[in-house]
Write a structure and sequence with these properties.
By secondary structure, the protein is mostly helical. The chain is built from 19 helices and no strands.
């Protein structure tokens, strides 16, 4: 496996960006920030990044680097007493497949909307953005063609291998994403009512936070931190598997969290500034990207250009995440069943095709039969399952694996995480990691159940 190591730190961080930067940064973060009082949500979100996000990134990467395996096989290998032999496999496979089933359709929609923007569809005031999206999500032919294009692109990248395929493609997608996003932010900062937008974004509004519900705020902030970093499903373990021992894991974990947070803040700036300037409500999910923002482009100078940039950002984010997820699942199959890459890719292609087809059929059914829906009910359900159940469960198990005697153990974890140059952890954090992290996650999950 030596040839598969990632020796370039820049490549490691760009691959991590591909893991973490996704649709949660684009269509969820701006809405949550505004809904929960701007600076109030940002403050709570940053706390969760520090006390949960960075430690769990470090734990996942440590498991991968110590075992040189993906998470499903690594936890079996490191678990001395086989306390968590099968549960991690179930959770990680479920999490990866469900995330992949979200990103493939969204990447396809981004392709469709990019070409619609290039053709000037949204320049016609007679075009209904709601009707266009419902037409797309009820068209079996277009949905399956777009899904097939994204799926084939993903498989081809992974067949070429980690270094020659995944790293090269994700490197390009990540750089393009940052470049396009910066252009969108610059445009947002030159919009009218800029001061009002920035106040709405950054100023703490405790009344608005209370109106949204403090318990809901805590739940959504934690879920956003876990979801946006892709924690609990082993993507960071795959990075650790290919990471050298030159630098400490904690330092890289901090950088990964910083990069992801920077993208969220930039996206929020672009979206909020534009929506405030044109008097549009900042909505959630696909409604924001595929219905609200296209209406804004109708009224913007050079709106076609900014629309193209937006959908390129969405595609780069969704496609890079899909590629990394598929690579993670491919390597999980290779480690778990001792298959070669070609066999693992094609078997995974078959399983993924069935799953994505099922999700697309659900989208079509809901889009046709429920006129009030935006056609993404199936994705909303998958997203809720991931955020409320799968990711928190995976994060708790990873925390216990790294801190509990009889499994891998805290001393082995500490030795691995402190190997290399960079910031190091103290043994004094053991109780916090062993009891504090699971307690926080479980408590907020219970609060979420009570809010249902």
């Amino acid at each position: 496996m030596e040839k598969e190591r990632i020796y370039s730190r820049l490549d490691l961080l760009l691959l991590a960006a591909g893991c973490t930067i996704g649709i949660g940064n684009i269509w969820r973060f701006p809405y949550l920030t505004v809904h929960y009082g701007g600076g109030v949500f940002l403050f709570i979100y940053f706390i969760f990044l520090i006390i949960l996000g960075i430690p769990i990134i470090a734990m996942e990467m440590a498991i991968g680097r110590a075992s040189r395996q993906t998470i499903s096989h690594a936890m079996q290998q490191l678990d001395k007493e086989r306390q968590y032999e099968y549960v991690p496999c179930i959770i990680t496979y479920a999490g990866n497949f469900l995330l992949f089933a979200i990103y493939v359709p969204v990447a396809g929609w981004a392709i469709y909307y990019f070409f619609q923007t290039v053709l000037g569809t949204f320049s016609n005031p007679a075009v209904s953005t709601i009707g266009l999206f419902q037409k797309l999500t009820s068209s079996a032919g277009e949905l399956f063609l777009l899904g097939a294009i994204v799926l084939c692109f993903t498989v081809i990248c992974c067949l070429a291998g980690m270094s020659k395929g995944v790293v090269r493609v994700v490197r390009v997608l990540s750089v393009l994403l940052f470049a396009f996003l910066i252009l969108l932010v610059i445009d947002g900062l030159f919009q009218k009512r800029l001061g009002e937008a920035l106040i709405l974004y950054f100023k703490p509004d405790w009344k608005q936070a209370a109106a949204g519900g403090i318990s809901h705020l805590l739940e959504d902030a934690m879920n956003q931190a876990l979801f946006t970093l892709g924690l609990g499903v082993g993507m960071m373990t795959m990075l650790g598997k290919h990471m050298t021992k030159k630098r400490t894991i904690l330092g890289e974990a901090i950088w990964i969290a910083v990069i992801d947070t920077m993208v969220s803040l930039l996206t929020g700036t672009a979206v909020i500034c534009v929506c405030v300037a044109y008097g549009k409500e900042i909505t959630l999910g696909a409604e924001l990207v595929f219905q609200t923002l296209p209406r804004v482009f109708l009224r913007m100078d050079h709106g076609r250009i900014w629309g193209c940039l937006l959908y390129l950002v969405v595609f780069c984010a969704a496609a890079s995440s899909a590629i990394v997820l598929f690579e993670n699942m491919t390597e999980m199959f290779m480690d778990q069943f001792q298959w070669d890459r070609k066999k693992a890719c094609f078997i995974l292609l078959g399983i993924s095709s069935v799953l994505i087809a099922f999700i697309l059929v659900c989208i079509i059914i809901f889009s046709v039969k429920i006129s009030a829906t935006d056609g993404t009910t199936a994705l909303i359900g998958v997203d809720a399952l991931l955020r409320r159940w799968v990711l928190p469960a995976g994060a708790v198990i990873i925390s216990l694996q790294c801190t509990t005697d009889g499994t891998w153990g805290f001393h082995e974890f500490l030795k691995e995480i402190n190997t290399g140059e960079g910031p190091k952890c103290s043994i004094k954090i053991r109780k916090i990691m062993q009891f504090g992290i699971p307690a926080v996650i479980i408590s907020i999950v219970i609060i979420g159940w009570m809010n249902l």
